Amino acid sequence: MSLTAVELPRVKPERLRAAIEALMLVGADAPESLGKRLETGARAVSKQTGSEPARNFQALLEVGYLVASADGFADEERAALARLLEHATARAVSHDVLELHFRDLDESAALLGRAERLLRAASDIEEAGAKLDALRFAGLVALSDGQLGQPEVTALYELACGLSLSETDANRVIKPLVDELEHALRD
Prior knowledge:
Layout: E1 6-7, H1 13-24, H2 34-46, H3 52-68, H4 75-88, H5 95-112, H6 114-123, H7 128-142, E2 147-148, H8 150-162, H9 167-186
Antiparallel strand pairs: 1-2
Helix pairs in contact: 1-4, 1-9, 2-3, 3-6, 3-7, 3-8, 4-5, 5-6, 6-8, 7-8, 7-9
């Protein structure tokens, strides 16, 4: 079954952010979890190490941002995403640094094209677990405005392809995220 556009239950932005953050940080104590990758990568970026965790973090940010912005990205959404990531990474990367990075991504996407930039960022992610995390992260970021538009669905499938994952793999990652968020927001 293919993904379709989704409208999550309408809740206060703080509640949506908390639900998404909870899903980002599931298993944060496990060394290979999305939450741990985010925090480790953010710390490596802040130390400007150029290490694999730093490259993976930057690639995760880029694919998440490019997927979420496929249907446009208002300044409020950009700021909300920066706040979410700042908190999810235990403030290892500041809100201002994230905002600057997002503006750089806008410029590079305008120059190279969104699809090309997405494929380039995806090619930086090599480890199998990191590929699934990238798809999960991009899905969560895309859902951070309370909906998953058809352009974002298309971008998620493009990302899966760039990660050498199938449409079925994308469905197996994204559909449970949508279900978990809907459940969390209805409780």
